[in-house]
Amino acid sequence: MNVSKPLPKFDPRSIPVLGTDAHLEGVTADRLQPQALRDRFRHPPVWTPEHSVEKKFTDRTPALAAVLLPLVMRDELTLLLTERTTNLSTHSGQIALPGGRTDDADRDAIDTALREAREEIGLPAAHVEVLGTLPTYVTGTAFIITPVVALVEPGFKLQPNPGEVADVFEVPLWYLMNPAHHRRHEVEFDGVLRQWLSMPYLEPTPGGEDAESRERYIWGATAGMLRNLYRFLSA
Predict the structure, then answer these.
(1) Distance between CA 179 and CA 181 in Å, rounded?
(2) Helices (H), 47-108
(3) Angle between helices 34-42 and 220-234 (to 10 degrees)
């Protein structure tokens, strides 16, 4: 039996940028309003996901999972993201959406996403308005992920699980829905060409112009699912 080799540890920032999609239009501001998103999910357009299945690099048994795309209703919508701790067995240290593996007691993907968001970062379900789901995304680690998109009412108090989450932060949705910020990469490993997107975000830090910004390096599965959200909202 051929057993797939694990991908080597590497810094995705070190892989050259092949290009961006600055030639594509970003999602317009009117489509990034809470009511516009509600309407879009109630009456979805005809569209095709761009990223659905990553190339496998493990022979592990596929597992169902779900993530929450929590869009916080501030003056402008922001996406709540996490930085995973470095001790986790998969995707350690990466920027991620709150979520995880489906439990037997979960009724559906929405139940999984809400439970995981509560367990990971303490996001209370009472603040969450689920809009709908996007098509599944299959990672190279054999997780079959359902992205659950939701609006989040501000005023919540988060309690990140220190065993899973190193940090929680927000990125403006308009930034992520602008394909000029979507960078394409590829690398060959074990004879297989692997391609992915990155969406680095420089997070403003307190202290004025002389303060050093912090880079939030969004890439891989998280970036792939966000690209699908872009396609859905721009269709």
Answers:
(1) 5
(2) none
(3) 80
> Within 13 A of 216's CA, how many CA atoms are on the CB side?
27
- Decide if 225 contacts 134 (C-beta within 8 A): yes
- Is beta strand 95-96 parallel, antiparallel or unpaired with respect to 77-84? antiparallel
Report d(CA 91, CA 82) in Å as an integer.
12
Structural domains of the chain ordered from first start: 22-234 (3.90.79.10)
Residue 32: CB atoms within 10 Å: 18
Residue of 221, 181, 186, 207 lying closest to 90 (CA atoms): 221
Q: Cβ(149)–Cβ(77) under 8 Å?
A: no
Tens-of-pLDDT digits for all 235 residues of the chain? Answer: 333 444 556 688 899 999 999 999 999 999 999 999 999 999 999 999 998 888 777 777 899 999 999 999 999 999 999 998 866 444 446 899 999 999 999 999 999 999 999 999 999 999 999 999 999 999 988 899 999 999 999 999 999 999 989 999 999 999 999 999 999 999 887 788 889 999 999 998 776 565 578 899 999 999 999 999 999 999 9
- Phi–psi pair at 146, nearest 5 degrees: -100, 115
CA-to-CA dists, residue 86 to 53, 91, 95, 162, 163, angstroms = 25, 8, 11, 11, 9
Where does the chain have alpha helices with state H?
Answer: 34-42, 109-121, 173-176, 220-234
Mind giving me the DSSP string for 129-164? Answer: EEEEE---EE-TT-EEEEEEEEEE-S-------TTT
